[in-house]
TrEMBL record:
NCBIfam families membership: malonate_madL (TIGR00807)
Species assigned in the record: Haliscomenobacter hydrossis (strain ATCC 27775 / DSM 1100 / LMG 10767 / O)
Any one annotated GO CC term: membrane
Residue ranges crossing the lipid bilayer per the database entry: 30-50, 70-88, 94-112
Alphabetical list of InterPro entries matching this protein: Maln_transptMadL (IPR004690)
Protein name: Malonate transporter, MadL subunit
UniProt keyword list: Membrane, Transmembrane, Transmembrane helix
Pfam family, any one: MadL
Length: 120
């Protein structure tokens, strides 16, 4: 069952990467556009679908959890291969696409902390 969890994760990753590459080609961008994001969404949907049908067992979850612990290092490694110099020289849009979400998150955090219930 552990191997089935890893196989589910691998299948979602491959489909996500193919989707990202396809989207990149459709948009005429020589890059994978959201492949990891597609993979994670597909994994969530597949996991929920299997849980609703009673087919997502504890051992299968362990296979998924094994690789989910590796998620942050994998994302850091994938980010390290991105060409930041080309993104910055491509124009202001690439720079704003990174700065604006960070600023929005920083602005919303105080609001969220005021709205959240106090921990005991």
């Amino acid at each position: 069952m552990l191997i089935r969890g890893v196989a589910l994760l691998a299948a979602c990753f491959i489909i996500g990467q193919l989707s990202g590459e396809t989207l990149g080609r459709i948009l005429h961008i020589d890059a994978n556009v959201g492949g990891v994001g597609f993979a994670m969404l597909l994994l969530i949907l597949a996991q929920n679908w299997l849980e609703q049908r009673g087919r997502f067992h504890q051992e299968m979850e362990e296979g998924v959890m094994f690789w989910s612990k590796m998620y942050i290092p994998v994302i850091v490694a994938m980010s390290a291969i991105q060409n930041v110099r080309v993104a910055l020289s491509s124009g202001l849009v690439a720079l704003l696409a990174g700065i604006i979400p960070v600023l929005v998150c920083l602005a919303v955090m105080p609001l969220l902390s005021k709205l959240s219930p106090k921990a005991a």
